[in-house]
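Risk register update: the risk of archive-format incompatibility is retired. Evidence:
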Amino acid sequence: MEETYLSKLVARAQERNAVAGITGLLVLSGNRFLQALEGPVGFVNELVTKIIADKRHSRFELLSYEQSAAPVFYDWSMTVLRLEEVPPATREVLVAKYDLENGSIRVPEDSFSAHSLLLDARWVCVAQEKALRA
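Archived output:
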């Protein structure tokens, strides 16, 4: 996905999500996406319905739908992590844990491993933000 297009898409999502109280993380690896959305059930349901209806998505699969006691991705109304851009040492860890598929870090298809990748991605994003502030 082209960087300018993605940046515009994320900026719009951040604005809309902030108003709706939605938080989340989008992970990109090769041509695969993995996304977590959190927030008020009605707003999240509405957003997921829009995502499913969007013709740009060739294969949508809902891996997990559950309520949590507290949001995990509370830092962002939406942020993006391109796994191709993580530091080499981080990439090695992720490759060891998730393997490679067509040269990219494999996006798991089972909910447990997908949650694990999302949590790993969260910590990568937090570390990157801390490094930028230092």
